[in-house]
Write a structure and sequence with these properties.
- With 665 residues, this protein is α+β, with helices and mostly antiparallel strands.
- The protein has 4 domains: 203 residues, no CATH class; 45 residues, no CATH class; 190 residues, no CATH class; 152 residues, no CATH class.
- 17% of the residues lie in helices and 29% in strands.
- The protein is built from 14 helices and 30 strands.
- It has a 7-stranded mixed β-sheet with strand order 2-1-6-3-7-8-9. A 6-stranded mixed β-sheet has the order 22-23-24-25-26-30, covered by helices on one side.
- The two termini are 38 Å apart.
């Protein structure tokens, strides 16, 4: 481990297990940058070790300098005693009483007076030195980031280095001295330090953390401010103070701590969490968001906790048919029916750390408890994750979702629901104690020996309109599990490998839109033609740059016209698309029978899919036309249209006509 000597400013290599040192936690300067290892070495070349520099004891603590001499005079200059009584010396003393040293023996100026030295490095060393520490570690200059091997080793060792430090100084450059740090909206609460990815492990790993204001004044310690820090970060006080093992906290909860934090590099979202999960893995800068996928895979290899699949939004109890009594033990129970099912473009592993923002409430249920609740035999094999060319193979109990489809739902939804299941996870939410969580999944290739599990979400409606929208997780009460126990089966599923992503695609969801172009994919075009529709997509043009019109005509029957209009706000970072749907009947007489409108709103970074919405209305005595519309993000300013038109005589569920953003990033 490379440390800074707080007396000389020079680098030294020490074994952290046998050295007492302080360590600095800080946020990097976004304007002027931080002084790097290479830059500090260049400054150090101008200096040599000072003669008679202070000794250190066996632990590396600073031993006081011998009094009476100032060792910071220019080369070949004078060393002047601090008192009138100078010590006897073999070197001559001039008429002014000053001791003269030859140029070859006179020390160089102190590095601490060098104007090119970073003030942060100077002040950190001075603060550590004043508190008795001979050595300090500062990430910005103690790691040679030009060496990929050294950088990878440091990242994989960093949690241990912070844990073994005698003290961690958390320098909060944006917190002034003298304010009430507990007050709502205080600078301490809003400090950038609490929003950065790397500072999470720097807060948790050390036993002692001392918070410092912008002028290096002590604010307090992790111990004295533990309740305030818990409130700011959402991290249990017992974890902060090492009263509770980090490994006893669910994977979802640990990921939730980092879900609102940011890093400069996408890869660091994953790399900054290696120590939180006691994992070592190679760092591959350039892999982008794939690093988070690799982190999840490494967690699977060593942590049996299934809360890693408990990402996204959690719903209330699902209601079956006939209705079940509600579980009143959870306070204000609400039941909901599934009205539609929408796949996500991802496997069971989360595509993004932000999906775990609600994971702080997830806790693990012991395996014995799971076996008892599901009435599985004690000899039931534990879940294993086997990595194969087809993906990651696993066994998990599932419950069919068709049991919870809303009465009166469209027939095609009931048919499609036969591919959908709730994967029963070994965890529960604190909001629903005693209820296991079910992950909404779509299983492809039913009946095949290779069945891939794809994440999805269920659109639900509660009887009292208290729960609306799409949900990734649902709570399964003991009563629900008991009623549908006969439908529960253990399936062997595969978590597919991630699809290929080109480098240029990684950041397009963060780019502002300009003028929107809507594209009807060839597959959708051919599907509509196969249903007997003539397809015509027009726009935009110079007179109407914000409009598209899709016309679907079935000869001698009806015409569906969908007029799209988009609006861009906030310099292209907010998009609203409205679709007006009009059906005109041409037989037996021409008449417009219904007109409806739906809309979508999204903001940067753009969601992969905007919710698929259905509108339908029956023509008395004839048929029902159902139009299902969706939008898929294709590229900056470009969206693929998802269009399906069906005619039947079945009673239908009518959507609200408003689609919210579905976060499938």
């Amino acid at each position: 481990m490379r440390l800074l000597d707080t007396e000389t400013g020079r680098f030294v290599d020490r074994d952290p297990a046998h050295t007492t040192y302080a360590i600095l936690s800080h946020t990097w300067d976004t304007s002027g940058g931080e002084q790097t290892h290479k830059q500090l070495r260049k400054i150090l070349k101008r200096y040599v070790a000072e003669a008679g520099r202070p000794r250190s004891d066996s632990r590396g603590l600073h031993a006081p300098s011998p009094p009476g001499w100032m060792l910071n005079q220019p080369l070949g200059g004078l060393i002047t005693p601090e008192s009138d009584t100078a010590q006897p010396s073999a070197f001559p003393i001039d008429s002014s009483g000053s001791l003269y040293l030859p140029p070859s023996m006179a020390p160089l100026p102190s590095i601490w007076d060098d104007p090119e030295l970073s003030p942060k490095i100077r002040d950190a060393c001075a603060f550590a030195r004043a508190n008795g520490f001979r050595y300090i570690w500062i990430d910005s200059c103690c790691i040679d980031k030009t060496s990929s091997s050294e950088l990878s080793e440091a990242i994989n060792s960093m949690f241990v280095w912070y844990a073994e430090a005698q003290v961690c100084y958390a320098f909060l450059a944006d917190v002034p001295v003298g304010e009430d740090h507990t007050a709502a909206g205080s600078s301490f609460r809003r400090s950038r330090w609490f929003t950065r990815g790397w500072t999470l492990q720097e807060l948790i790993a050390p036993w002692d953390v001392v918070f410092l204001s912008c002028d290096w004044t002590v604010i307090g310690s992790k111990n004295t401010l533990s309740r305030l820090v818990e409130e700011i970060t959402g991290i249990d006080r017992e974890v902060l103070l090492h009263e509770k093992s980090l490994d006893s906290v669910s994977v979802a909860a640990r990921l939730s701590w980092a879900s609102k934090r940011t890093t400069t590099r996408a890869e660091d979202q994953a790399y900054s969490l290696l120590g939180i999960f006691d994992i070592n893995m190679p760092t591959l800068y350039g892999e982008g968001e794939r690093a988070f996928r690799r982190l999840q895979e490494e967690i699977m290899r060593r942590v049996p906790d299934q809360s890693r699949f408990a990402w996204g939004r959690c719903a209330v109890q699902l209601q079956g048919s006939p209705p079940l009594p509600l579980d009143n033990s959870i306070g204000n129970p609400r039941a909901a029916y599934v009205t539609s099912l929408i796949p996500r473009p991802s496997s069971l592993l989360s595509p993004s750390l932000t999906q775990f923002q609600d994971g702080g409430k997830i806790r693990v249920v012991p395996r014995d408890n799971i076996l008892q609740r599901l009435k599985l035999s004690p000899g039931h094999p534990a879940t294993e994750y086997i990595f194969s060319p087809y993906g990651i193979r696993m066994q998990i109990p599932v419950l069919p979702l068709f049991l919870f489809i809303a009465p009166g739902a469209l027939e095609h939804i009931r048919t499609e629901s036969k591919h959908w299941y709730l994967a029963i996870l070994g965890c529960e939410s604190c909001d629903f104690p005693g209820h296991l969580l079910g992950r909404v999944v779509r299983i492809s290739a039913p009946g095949s020996d290779i069945q891939a599990a794809q994440a999805g979400f269920a659109c639900v409606e509660a009887q009292d309109d208290s729960a609306q929208g799409g949900f990734d997780l649902v709570s399964l009460s003991p009563m629900t599990i008991e009623r549908y126990r006969a439908h529960i089966e253990v399936k062997t599923l595969y978590i597919s490998h991630p699809e290929r992503t080109t480098g240029t695609e990684r950041n397009v969801s963060h780019r502002a839109h300009e003028r929107i172009s809507l594209i009807l994919p060839q597959k959708a075009h051919d599907g509509l033609r196969a249903q007997g529709y003539a397809v015509d997509l027009q726009g935009p043009d110079q007179s109407n740059p914000d409009r598209h019109r899709l016309t679907l005509s079935r000869q001698d029957d009806h015409t569906v016209t969908i007029a799209y209009q988009h609006t861009l706000e906030d310099d292209g970072s907010k998009l609203t698309i409205k679709a007006d749907i009009r059906t005109t009947w041409s037989h037996p007489v021409v008449e417009e029978y219904f007109k409806d409108a739906i809309s979508w709103t999204d903001t940067i970074c753009w969601a992969s899919h905007l919710q698929r919405v259905e509108v339908s209305q029956a023509r008395p005595g004839v048929k029902t036309i159902t139009v299902a519309l969706g939008l898929d993000f294709a590229w900056t300013s470009r969206y693929f249209l998802s269009v399906d038109v069906r005619s039947d005589t079945t009673a239908v569920f009518r959507s609200s006509g408003v689609a919210g953003q579905q976060d499938t990033r």
